[in-house]
Amino acid sequence: MKHGRYPFIIGFLIVPVAIYVTFVVAAYVQAFQLSFTDWRGFSPNVNYIGFDNFVKLFHDDTFWKAIRHHLVLLIFLPLFTIVLALFFSFLLNVGGGSKGGKTRGVWGSKFYRVVFFFPQLLALALVAVIFARVYSPDDSGLINGLLNQFGAGPVLFLADGKLALWSILAVLVWQGVGFYVVLFSAGMGSIPTEIYEAAALDGATRGVLFFRVTLPLLWNTLQVAWVYLGIAAFDAFALVNVMSVDRGGPDGATTVLGLEIFRNAFDYAQFGYASAMGVVLFFLTISFAALTMRVTRRDAIEM
Questions:
Q1: Name one GO biological process term (predicted).
Q2: Residues ≥6 apart with Cβ < 8 Å to 269
Q3: How far apart are the first and last CA of the chain?
C-alpha cells in the first residue's frame, strides 16, 4: 500500500501541475526574458537591450507615483479591513456575552454573516460599476443625491485628486471585509469555548476577552490575512481601471502598477518595458509577503 501511494498521488497531481507550469510559471519566465528586450509585440525578432528598461523605469515619474499609491493602499487597506473584520467577527461569535456558561454572538448573527459575505459573490468589475454610480457627482449618485437633499454641494469623489484614491480604497475595504469576517469567524470557532467560559467566570469584560484571549489565539490567521490584503494592495487594477477618471486619473492620482503595465503593453505596444514593470511588481509582492511573515512570526500558543 505504501509503495502504491506515490504513483497514486503523482497521477492526481501531474495534470494540474502541468497546467500550472504551462500557463503560470512559463508566463513568469517569459516576462523575465522580455523585460531585457525592446519587443513591441508585433515581430518575432527580439532585440536584447540589457537593463535599459529598468534604468528607464527608475527614472519614470509615473512609476514612482504608482509606487506611492501602492504604499498608501499597503498601509490602510489591511489596517481598515482587519480592524473592521475583527470587530464584526467578535460581535458575531462572542459579542452576545455569556448565557448559561456558554458564549454566543449578538442576536441575528447568522443573518449578519450572510450580509457581510454577500459582496464576495459579486465580480470585482461589477462592484466597480456599482460604486462608480454611487460616487456619481450628480443627483443620480447615491451619496450626492442624499447630500443634495440637505442642500450640500456635490462631492467629487473620483474627480478630486485628493479624494479619488481614498474613494477607491473604501470600495476595496467594503468588498473585502466579508471574506475576512468569515475567515476570522472560523478562527474564533476553533478556539475552545472553555477558554471564553473560564474568562467570563473570572469577570472578564468583552474588551478583555478580545485583547487577552481572542487576539493572541487568532494571531496566525491575522498574519495570513495581512499577507493576502498586502497582495491585494499591490493589485487594485480592476477597480482603478473601471472607476477612475481617464484610467488612473485625475492626473495620475489613482494609477497603480497593474494599470501602467496594461497601458504600456496594450496602448503603447511597449511589451518589454511593461514586462520590466511586471518583474518589479513580482519582487515587491514576494518581498512584502516574506517580510510580513518574518516580522509577525510568533511562537504558537498551545490550547
A1: transmembrane transport
A2: 40, 41, 42
A3: 35
pLDDT the model gives residue 102: 56
Q: For residue 99, report the phi and psi dihedrals to the nearest 5 degrees.
A: -140, 125
Positions of E strands within the chain: 97-99, 102-104
Are 169 and 77 in contact by the 8 Å Cβ rule? The answer is yes
User: Rounded to whole angstroms, how far apart are CA atoms 8 and 182?
Assistant: 34
Beta bridge partners of 104: 97
Cell of 68: 506611492
The amino acid that residue 140 corresponds to is: S
| Torsion sign (Cα): 153, 155, 160, 162 | positive
Mark out the alpha helices in 118-154 (DSSP H runs). 124-134, 142-149
For 47, list phi and psi in degrees, rounded to 5: -105, 115
- Is residue 77 within 8 A of residue 234, CB to CB? The reply is no
Question: From CA 30, how far away is CA 49, in angstroms rounded?
Answer: 15
- The segments of the chain whose pLDDT lies below 70 read 1-4, 94-109, 196-197, 200, 202-206, 298-303
pLDDT for 1 equals: 46
In percent, how much of the chain has pLDDT > 70? 88
Q: Which residues contact residue 5 at a Cβ distance below 8 angstroms, ignoring those fewer than 6 apart?
A: none
Write out the H or E segment, with its range, that includes residue 276. helix 271-295
Domains of the chain (ranges; CATH) run: 54-295 (1.10.3720.10)
Peptide bond just before 250 cis, omega within 30 deg: yes
